[in-house]
Design goal:
The complex is a heterodimer of chains A (89) and B (147).
Chain A (H helix, E strand, L loop, with lengths): L1 H24 L3 H26 L4 H25 L6
Helix pairs in contact in A: 1-2, 2-3
Chain B lengths: L1 H29 L3 H27 L2 H31 L17 E2 L4 E2 L6 H9 L14
Helix pairs in contact in B: 1-2, 2-3
The chains are: A mainly alpha (89), B mainly alpha (147).
Pfam family, one (chain B): PhaG_MnhG_YufB
Keywords (chain B): Membrane, Transmembrane, Transmembrane helix
Protein name (chain B): Na+/H+ antiporter subunit G
């Protein structure tokens, strides 16, 4: 079981790294916003893995909060893109 | 015995969650434009989180945790398409370039980026003329990008 948890941590960390590369590269601002949203999704998955790893169920609450803030951030960025001021990609 | 089987099921769920999330990450890194990247990230990412929450549900074997994990899954499944729609819409309006080999862009001739109006393609000549002359419909979004 330990090995499985470690492998999932490794897979999730690798995907975080790849998403971070896209976040740095992303030619336009919407690309970066999509990368940020997926990063938050991966963080929710990592929180679930950590809850299993430490055997504490309170971390599920953290997952709920992270998912909520990620959604609000994505909507806010979309509104900013449609109506916002000058931006520098 | 049952313990072992449950552990195997949890292991399968966790590993498939990791693999699907990695797939989403590879997709967001390798695919050519914004729409295809969103296509990879929203679906595979949501499935990865859902599988991980199911694994936590099975691991804790508790009704309260089960309700919370189900809440996370429902929340992700509801909000992921909404956020993707909002970002994709904003991206189209600010003029994010789409892939060269895109087969179909149905808004290409219908959407007027100056007035932010969408034509149905079934208007008569008079309606088109009226639409061009009437200047009171100001665009409600910022349509020009400052470079």
């Amino acid at each position: 079981m330990e090995i499985v948890i470690l492998i999932s941590f490794a897979l999730l960390s690798l995907s975080m790294l790849l998403i971070f590369i896209r976040l740095l590269m992303g030619p336009t601002l919407p690309d970066r916003v999509v990368a940020l949203e997926l990063l938050a999704t991966v963080i929710v998955a990592i929180t679930g893995t950590y809850a299993i790893f430490t055997d504490r169920s309170s971390f599920i609450d953290v997952a709920i909060v992270v998912a909520l803030t990620a959604f609000l951030a994505a909507i806010g960025f979309a509104r900013f893109l449609e109506r916002g001021g000058p931006r520098d990609d | 015995m049952t313990e072992t089987i449950v552990n195997w099921v949890i292991a399968i769920f966790m590993l498939s969650s990791g693999i699907f999330t990695l797939l989403a990450a590879v997709g967001i890194l390798r695919l050519p434009d914004l729409m295809t990247r969103m296509h990879a990230s929203t679906k595979a990412g949501a499935l990865g989180v859902a599988l991980m929450m199911i694994a936590a549900m099975l691991h804790f074997n508790d009704l309260v945790v089960m309700a919370k994990a189900l809440a996370v899954i429902m929340f992700i499944l509801i909000t992921a398409p909404i956020a993707a729609h909002a970002i994709g819409r904003a991206g189209y309006f600010v003029g994010v370039p789409i892939w060269v080999n895109t087969v179909k862009d149905e808004l290409f001739n219908r959407y007027d980026s100056d007035t932010h109006r969408l034509r149905s393609g079934l208007e008569t000549e008079e309606e088109l003329k009226k639409m061009k002359t009437s200047n009171k419909d100001k665009p409600r979004i910022r349509v020009t990008t400052k470079k």
